[in-house]
Amino acid sequence: PVKKDVSLATFLSSIATLYPELTWRIDVPSTLIWQADEDMLRQVFINLVKNAIEADAKTIGIDWESKADASSVGRLYVSNNGRTIPDEVVREIFIPFFTTKSSGSGIGLSLSRQILLRQGLLLSLKERPLRNYNVSFVIDKDC
After folding, report:
1. How far apart are CA 115 and CA 122, in angstroms?
2. Would you state the pLDDT for residue 68?
């Protein structure tokens, strides 16, 4: 990764413009800056949004929860109101080549997790989605 300062609010707004058919709710401070490879980060968000669209999502919500002692350290929640992920596949979704889609390759979430790990971030599925959503992914920034 080639890391540089990325304004998360600006970055997320640019992702939202790629999908005008969705309703976006972005609650991220305008001052939030991450050291990240912007191109790689874009691939992760595009994958999460495409998966949401394939699950019939109409709304994407992105929320920042900072740790009390540091405004740039915390969790980013990426949620959608698409179909829920069945309990029987939740443990499998980050395994390479696992897919429930007839035309899927099963590498999207696995690759997204690896991309973020290389940047000091962790992608996981929140056990209970945020209120008003059916699925919430979490990107932990604790370094």
Report:
1. 9
2. 65
- Please give the C-alpha separations between residue 85 and each of 39, 77, 91, 119, in angstroms, as whole numbers: 27, 16, 10, 26
Q: Measured on CA atoms in the order 111, 142, 37, 128, is the torsion positive or negative? A: positive
In the beta sheet, which residues pair with residue 61?
25, 79
The torsion defined by the Cα of 90, 108, 80 and 67, in degrees rounded to 10, comes to 80
Does this model's pTM top 0.85? My answer is yes
One-character DSSP codes across 83-98: PPPPHHHHTTTTSTT-
Give the model confidence (pLDDT) of 119-130 as tens digits.
999 999 999 999
pLDDT digits (tens, 9 = 90+) for 52-107: 999 999 999 999 998 765 566 899 999 999 999 988 888 888 887 666 666 666 67
